[in-house]
């Protein structure tokens, strides 16, 4: 059984270009595959390998000399795969680790209020809470939380257009957002705060952490959670719910 790690952290990495090759070598030397993005604002990725290899990588990221302790708040979700869910290893340099296209948005300075999975059900059941799924429309179609608004995004960068068109800080006083692993709603929350929205929450660890922690009998999640690898989708308990031959024709393979 292989171990899969979904990870990210918003943190200043002014030397991110210099980190690419040492990080690639660190992963390749342990037969780790997957995709890692590096940018001046931080790191984002999903990788898979033998459990010992993934554990070593995580330890190096958090406390090793390569990142000099800058990833000590790394957001991590672990799951498993019966076969390698990635074809190769990619370590890429990007302008953003998740593309919103708004230079003024900076999650290292301001983000919404984190809500853990155990408190999420109570929050989204509170009257006056607007619940928003900030994932792409094809992901929402596979599963979402009961009562969530689907912005019908073709890509995350379109969230700005949705917010300008549909959201009003004078009308929407409490907003709760969620996404697969937490990174998109963290950036979206930062964006909304910069636009004058006062009470903005997001699910810490994303859907994956919720499905891991909350029993199906207590869950308000319906359907499956799409993941960007050959497992296609995960269900409660982070169990693989689809096989590669069930993949939809033309389904995007990257965020």
Automatic annotation (TrEMBL):
PROSITE patterns: RHODANESE_3. SMART domains: RHOD. Gene3D superfamilies: 3.30.70.100, Rhodanese-like domain. Keywords: Oxidoreductase, tRNA processing. It catalyses: uridine(34) in tRNA + AH2 + O2 = 5-hydroxyuridine(34) in tRNA + A + H2O. GO terms for biological process: tRNA modification. Residues 125-219 form the Rhodanese domain. It comes from the Bacteria. GO terms for molecular function: oxidoreductase activity, acting on paired donors, with incorporation or reduction of molecular oxygen. Its EC number is 1.14.-.-. It is an enzyme of class 1 (oxidoreductase). NCBIfam families: PRK00142.1-4 (NF001136). HAMAP family: TrhO. Belongs to the TrhO family. Catalyzes oxygen-dependent 5-hydroxyuridine (ho5U) modification at position 34 in tRNAs. This is tRNA uridine(34) hydroxylase. It comes from Nitrobacter vulgaris. The gene is trhO.
């Amino acid at each position: 059984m292989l171990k899969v790690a979904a990870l990210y952290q918003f943190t200043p990495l002014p030397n991110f270009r210099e980190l690419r090759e040492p990080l690639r070598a660190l992963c390749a030397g342990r037969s780790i595959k997957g995709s890692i993005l590096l940018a001046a604002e931080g790191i984002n990725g999903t990788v898979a390998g033998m459990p010992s290899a993934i554990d070593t990588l995580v330890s190096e990221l958090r406390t090793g000399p390569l990142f000099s302790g800058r990833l000590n708040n790394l957001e991590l979700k672990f799951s498993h795969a019966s076969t390698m869910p990635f074809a190769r290893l990619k370590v890429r340099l990007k302008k953003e680790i998740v593309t919103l296209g708004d230079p003024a948005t900076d999650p290292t300075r301001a983000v919404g209020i984190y809500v853990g999975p155990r408190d999420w059900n109570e929050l989204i059941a509170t009257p006056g809470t607007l619940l928003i799924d900030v994932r792409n429309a094809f992901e929402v179609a596979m599963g979402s939380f009961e009562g969530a608004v689907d912005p019908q995004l073709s890509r995350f960068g379109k969230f700005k257009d949705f917010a300008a068109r549909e959201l009003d800080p004078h009308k929407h006083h409490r907003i709760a957002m969620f996404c697969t692993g937490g990174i998109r709603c963290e950036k979206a929350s930062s964006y909304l705060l910069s636009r004058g929205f006062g009470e903005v929450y997001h699910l810490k660890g994303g859907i994956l952490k919720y499905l891991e922690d909350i029993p199906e009998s207590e869950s308000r999640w319906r359907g499956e959670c799409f993941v960007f690898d050959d497992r296609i989708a995960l269900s409660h308990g982070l169990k693989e719910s689809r096989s590669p031959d069930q993949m939809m024709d033309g389904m995007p393979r990257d965020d």
